[in-house]
Amino acid sequence: MKFFTVTLLMCLVTANAIAAWESLPTEAPAPADNPTTEAKVELGKMLFFDPRFSATGTVSCFSCHNVMEGGDDHRSSSIGVHGQIGGRNAPTVWNAAFLSTQFWDGREATLEDQAKGPVTNPIEMGMASLEDAIERVRAISGYKVYFEAAFGAGDAVTIDNAAKAVAAYERTLITPNSPYDRYVEGDRSALSVQAIRGMETFEQAGCMSCHSGAAFAGPALPMGTGFFMKFPTFPDRPDIEKYSLMEDEGRFTVTGNVADKNVWRVPTLRNLEYTAPYFHNGTVKGLDDAVRIMAQSQLNKDLSDAEIADVIAFLESLSGEFPQQTMPRLPPTPGDLLE
Amino acid sequence: MKFFTVTLLMCLVTANAIAAWESLPTEAPAPADNPTTEAKVELGKMLFFDPRFSATGTVSCFSCHNVMEGGDDHRSSSIGVHGQIGGRNAPTVWNAAFLSTQFWDGREATLEDQAKGPVTNPIEMGMASLEDAIERVRAISGYKVYFEAAFGAGDAVTIDNAAKAVAAYERTLITPNSPYDRYVEGDRSALSVQAIRGMETFEQAGCMSCHSGAAFAGPALPMGTGFFMKFPTFPDRPDIEKYSLMEDEGRFTVTGNVADKNVWRVPTLRNLEYTAPYFHNGTVKGLDDAVRIMAQSQLNKDLSDAEIADVIAFLESLSGEFPQQTMPRLPPTPGDLLE
Asked: Which CATH number does B38-170 carry?
């Protein structure tokens, strides 16, 4: 996986960010080998919600990515099988399709690759292997017809096809038409005076150095590129230690490259009001603290309480329209599926 | 709570069961103090799916009563907070509105009373008290408007109202128009020849002594009455020990009355193909074993393999139409909700 270095990125985005405020597209890009189809989305939604492919039969994608709310699980870090607690805050699945890498540390290039990770993670879904997981899918005979509808007859029930279907469903999880989107598309009444003031503060303070683009997670880049930033850039601020923000070394845990210590994928800012608590370790509970800490740790700036309130009003204007989710019907369980 | 003694029941149902094959009503009865309204159903659905009122924020009614499938969790016994494992098989929530008591041991009279139980059960949702649970609901300020729409302005966010709303939603979880229902309503082509043969075997063998009525869980009785039966009635059959079917003493654990040892609420037979594994302890994985054991343990009869296959064809004809479930949108989480 290619990715720009931090320094190069900072130059790039400083040049680009001024260009335009972007609204969120109503369709997400899909890779050439996995065009989004209705049949894939239908199957992918079933798999996304089905807890039967976890060691205990109780944990699904949906468990930590609750699409009835912010697409995360409102915990500091998630709980997987056997009550085990993970190490990082679950990122939202809403608009993940617009990010050019997946996971906080960007360790997977695509939604297809991401979808396989939690299945065999021992503290998430805890399956012994991907093969064990797809064997469970095969054992639920009612799934076969959906795989064949999505991928053609033959050996359709494969882990790669399952991942493609889940990714196709996730590409429908986008939240356009926020007040901010309507504003930048010309509806000048869509934002309050305070939110507009916050938008200006957000730009002038330099937040858009990283949080640019339609998802406020950096510019659109080829899939797998990744848009990363060191966090904290100014590590001596007292809240950094208070909230243990340097304990997890981020992308360094993937690459082993010293330059990647405390480097993270820049997260989206959309629907933030639904995704508390904040940051990679979920230690910061309020948006006010989150904004204050980001200004200090990334821009070495101390925003006033009034400026913080304005920026929050702006950030709240990034909550879009959540497409209504109809629950899938899942095929019945053979009695011996879960021993 | 009143309930008939086993002996009285056996007489009653022998007289009643012959009367008629009943189809499932398309509406469930509601108690006088909780008429079903759209606003209650909407709120109740939100609460049913919301995991934030459990100790870990991960367990909702939906976790063990999966309405995407059989209304249970396809496990022998459920998993609650902190990975703890419960003692009994989760009963289906589909058509629970037609049962005159709730829980396997009938310890609660109504869906309203049932809804409160798992919240404070330490191995289910694990909240310290119902008051703690409703405090969490109050902390999610977006809920208030839904409680007021359902129950009027004022002190609407109460545990009793929450339980009423959940019960109102559950009264919509009914599955009419199964092949069986269409058959008894006059569509003679709705059942296969084998299913009709199984229906006759089911009646002649005596299964309807207990599994009568629209839900095949006994006759319609006033709410809170309860329709109970000893299981096993013939305890010396080898499978009783093999599947540990007498270890849990059932209703005796509620009443302390020796006559209630190994007495259970008669469960519904609807949608059985979706609710494996079977019985109160979930030890029996296949419908074939379940039918064979029931005939032996309750009727002292040994059905042939062909008879068992016929009865299964009949039981599978009891799978109805599952009303499509639209996911609720849940109001956002304050960052400090889950410490």
From this structure: 1.10.760.10
